Known about the structure:
Radius of gyration of chain A: 26 Å
Organism (chain A): Micromonospora rosaria
Strand order of the largest sheet of chain A: 14-18-13-17-15-16
InterPro entries (chain A): Peptide/Ni-bd (IPR030678), SBP_5 (IPR039424), SBP_5_dom (IPR000914)
Oligomer: heterodimer
Structural class of chain A: alpha+beta
Helix content of chain B: over 70%
CATH topology of the largest domain in chain A: Dipeptide-binding Protein, domain 3
Pfam family, one (chain A): SBP_bac_5
Number of helices of chain A: 16
Largest sheet of chain A: 6 strands, mixed
GO molecular function (chain A): peptide transmembrane transporter activity
Number of domains of chain A: 3
Structural class of chain B: mainly alpha
Shape of chain B: elongated
GO biological process, one term (chain A): peptide transport
Strand content of chain A: 15-25%
Amino acid sequence: MSTSNIRRLGRWRVAVAVGAxxxxxxxGCGLNEGNDxxxxxxxxxxxxxxxxxxxxxSNFNPLQSLSKTDSWILNAMYPHLxxxxxxxxxxxxLAKDYGYEDDGKTAVFxxxxxxxxxxxxxxxxxxxxxxAEKIMEYKLGNVAAKLTWVESIEATDATxxxxxxxxxxxxxxxxxxxxxxxxPKHVFEKAGDLSKFANDSDWVGAGPFVLDSATKGQRxxxxxxxxxxxxxxxxxxxxxxxxxxxxxxxxxMLALRNGDIDLMGNPVPASAAKSFDNxxxxxMTKVGALGxxxxxxxxxxxxxxxxxxxxALSMSVDTKAIIASVLQGDAQQMAGxxxxxxxxxxxxxxxxxxxDPEGAKAKLSAAGYTDGNGDGxxxxxxxxxxxxxxxxxxxxxxxxFRESAAKAGIKLENECVERNTFLARTKSGEYDIDASQWGVxxxxxxxxxxxxxxxxxxxxxxxxxxxxxxxxLINDAAGTTDQAAFVEKIxxxxxxxxxxxxxxxxxxxxFQFAHNASKFTGFVASPSDLLGMVTAYxxxxxxxxx
Amino acid sequence: xxxxxxxxxxxxxxxxxxxATRAAWRDWLRQPSALLSVAVLxxxxxxxxxxxxxxxxxxxxxxxxxxPPSGAHWxxxxxxxxxxxxxxxxxxxxxxxxxxxxxxxxxxxxxxxGLVSAYVRGVDAVGTVITDVxxxxxxLPLMIMLAAVVSPSVVTLTVIIGVFAWPEVARLIRSQGLVxxxxxxxxxxxxxxxxxxxxVSREILPAVVPLMxxxxxxxxxxxxxSEAGLSFLGLGDPDSWSWGRILLNAxxxxxxAIAWWQTLFPSxxxxxxxxxxxxxxxxxxxxxxPRRNGG
Lengths: 546, 295
């Protein structure tokens, strides 16, 4: 008897739960209304900037590999030698300027003398030397690969640091300058093995803000550094910056509209940009990208190792339609692997493969492929397309790619999986076609080295390409010190990759960031969703309205 | 309370039993709530069967992005301009296929384990422990873990959901089977020299069939919720439409607040399917309750 009653109860519980889900869905639409005005004016001239982020900080050690939220928070604490400005150019940060000596075999940074750690100590060349040496010693993060050629580092005085290289490498100073975090030697040297140092309390930084407290899953509170020379008044106008965690972007957008946060750290999805159309307080800021979306072909696959097959696949993606729908037109199509952001290096002679399923079919027929069983697909041409299912745009791209490739007689299987599974498969090479997005390339040489060298120094040679010709072309370009010749060599590699169709570059998207313009102003947005509105420099310039 | 009575009905000779079963079915469908839920289920099945005749398979892109419901798009459109109505109709297919197939897996496993446990004492001890352990496991996290490891497809999802749903069926069937096993006619069969297989399949199994009908409905509705849940978490089959995937698309593209139609209609579809399956199952159980039938 009791079992039957319990079971009955259970059934009602199911019914009630389902009803609640539906009610939630309904209330979602209710939230859309009556929210245009009625701003919750705090009126106290509050100078706390609240920023929404979708993920927690997973690592507080700035010398290691960082997720997006990690780098937002840590970049506001630890200075870099250079930053990327709003025009995607390197600009001085801790370094006043930099140059090369000794025929390009020594890189010299001249530092500012007015940066101070929050414990009162000045930031010196010793800190830079210490940071770089520890990265090399423990092979920390992605910067370790950029320091490959360093033979020795010398701090000649408090504001001069010299990197002696084993061979000239043109983008060395820019790459290291932008990526490397400078940490306080007097704090970090006490920690011992820096590959195991958590750095999760008692923070000492020299950026405009320094972490004060961290509550996982909720908020990260940063206090102002009273000495930050890049802020207009010698210190930031904001007294506090607070990151709040909203795992769901829909909730974050509602929080911004309701005034619970003042800025979304993550970009607003293209499809949802309309959300703020009728909201006067919210201002959208558009920036470019430093990476791009791409389809990369695994060369270990017998069929994908053939140039014709890769070219046919490139002709089966309707990139223009993808840009028009998935990105609402807010992106730029690419031809070769060099992004148009690097206008100097982008080979404008090459054209994207046209969307031409019939042409692709003809190319495959000419290459000897047939459809023996008459199912509309070429025999033996069936590939899985791997992607991270949490990336909204890429999953849509794969869905459309699968449909358009079917028209060309190529059978694709959508293998968009949970993020960690995807990363594991990418690492072990278990995919045919990799659909993903590269986040930030700060210069084309580093990009080509990490994506095409057979030694795979950056770990992102998703082609698993082992080509002597490509190795030779890339190494040759890397050692070229004459700028004009260097540009020509990059342009040539751009062309070779395009002809080989090692990858199908898709688009460089624009990101849109939303902030509450009725409360704060003065953001200096840099390109990419990694930098966006929340760089140290940008936060230091922000002031409250009125 | 209904359990012992259920067996009493199965004990008499064949004709009255069939008569009683038929009466129960009639009685079941005579209740308005049961009839209505069966009608809803029938409509869903028809939608699933004739999906290609009702709407084109959703695909491609169009310029009508995020349009609210209208004559041209009954349930509105999503951020690619695809028709939500077509997605819901095609989603019915996946949801029903997974619901039915997973509940059949659960039913076959659950009935087999339940019946054997009920009849063979030695198996019972082990079977009960396994069932208890399975019932104590947090199934959703486990399903998420498994679905993340294997490549998501309709087949793998069905197997995962079915394999995690059997213990409840097994427990139900076992408790009923224990009662039947103790009945004198089972002893009679044994005296007549019937084999264990014959007793379980010919004597005990028919006595638990009504219970199986109820569990199919309830397990299927749970399976539909599980499938929607897994798809919403991005662990569904990316190549086939399902209600959970429509919800996931809305959530992932950040349009939950501006495109209510994209979440409302698939949610309603889940609500109607689960509610009607649950009500139909409950009413079927009730219709066999002698208190209602006057003995």
